[in-house]
């Protein structure tokens, strides 16, 4: 069985794999450059295409016998893609993060709602403001005290 596989055959297979991976990288790179720059959330599309380039790079490392580099690339590439997407999501780009800013504000407002309640803006079930409801309760209590005092006279 070992006699069938000679070093020149392995070298040919490695060369074919490297050429195919190079073509994938070239096509993906041209595809990234042809995307419309005004497209919303273009960074996420580009990160997705860069995933194909990552896989082609891992295949090249494996074909060259660089297994440690392939494993490191396989482990670190998703972390890098996540870091880029996260930086873009929370970034300061005015055009593409308008929707993201609204989502983040809504999320934090929902999480911190009890801490940020304003008594003037709080309404109870009847639809009245909290201050007017407290005022009505105080008036009712004073009327009860006054009516109780009159009945004792």
Can you tell me about this structure?
With 153 residues, the chain is an all-alpha fold. The chain has a domain at 7-96. It is 72% helix and 0% strand. The chain has helices at 7-34, 42-63, 67-89, 98-111, 130-152. The protein is elongated, with a radius of gyration of 33 Å. The protein starts with 6 loop residues before the first helix and ends with a helix. The model has no long low-confidence stretch (mean pLDDT 74).
Largest sheet: none
Oligomeric category: single chain
Cα end-to-end separation: 117 Å
Report the C-alpha radius of gyration, rounded. Answer: 33 Å
Strand-residue proportion: under 5%
Mean pLDDT: 74
The tally of strands reads 0
Given the C-alpha coordinates, what overall shape results?
Answer: elongated
String of helices and strands = HHHHH
Quickly count the helices: 5
Tell me the helix content: over 70%
The parts where pLDDT drops under 50 for at least 5 residues are: none
């Amino acid at each position: 069985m070992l006699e069938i596989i000679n070093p020149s055959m392995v070298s040919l297979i490695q060369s074919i794999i490297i050429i195919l991976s190079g073509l994938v990288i070239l096509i993906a790179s041209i595809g990234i450059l042809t995307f419309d720059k005004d497209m919303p959330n273009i960074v996420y599309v580009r990160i997705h295409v860069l995933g194909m380039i990552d896989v082609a790079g891992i295949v090249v490392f494996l074909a060259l016998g660089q297994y440690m580099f392939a494993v490191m690339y396989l482990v670190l590439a998703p972390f890098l893609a996540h870091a880029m997407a996260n930086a873009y999501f929370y970034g300061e780009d005015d055009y593409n993060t308008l929707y993201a800013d609204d989502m983040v504000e809504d999320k934090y407002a929902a999480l911190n709602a009890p801490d940020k309640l304003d008594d003037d803006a709080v309404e109870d079930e009847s639809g009245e403001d909290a201050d007017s409801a407290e005022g009505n309760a105080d008036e009712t209590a004073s009327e009860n005290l006054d009516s109780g005092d009159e009945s004792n006279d």
